[in-house]
Amino acid sequence: MKKLLRSLFVLSSVSVLSFAAAQDATIEPVDFGAPEALSIESDGTTHNFSVEIADNDEEQARGLMYRDSLAADKGMLFEFAEPKVATIWMKNTGIPLDIIFVRSNGKILKIEHSATPYSLRSASSEGTVAAVVELAGGRALELGILPGDMVRHEFFGNTQSAE
User: Is the pTM of this model over 0.90?
Assistant: First the structure.
């Protein structure tokens, strides 16, 4: 009986894995357009990134899912139509990410460091934000990026750095 149950378990596990693999094989690519320049000013230093833009529901739902790497100078900017309390999760995202919640004026409200790949736990901004920047996990700590630092991009209307 144990042998039969074990065989059934293995077969059902293989079926689930095969179904998941078949689903992944049919995932349609999303065109985020040409990457754009984004910078983060932190403690007198400017850190430059090239970010893909997710500015509609389809792009924001996909985000950085199904990626197996993210270069240290790359990322994604989620631009919301209206400021809101934002929540992000890591379902189908196989790389750790720093999730940076950004206010309408470009100031960083909160950072979720190295969010766990494939986690269904939501990370919340816990306040109203206009955007989220996702970077490779660990970059914010490595570069000393903190809440209160300034994200500069045309979306925030602040691409000219302060004199």
Answer: no
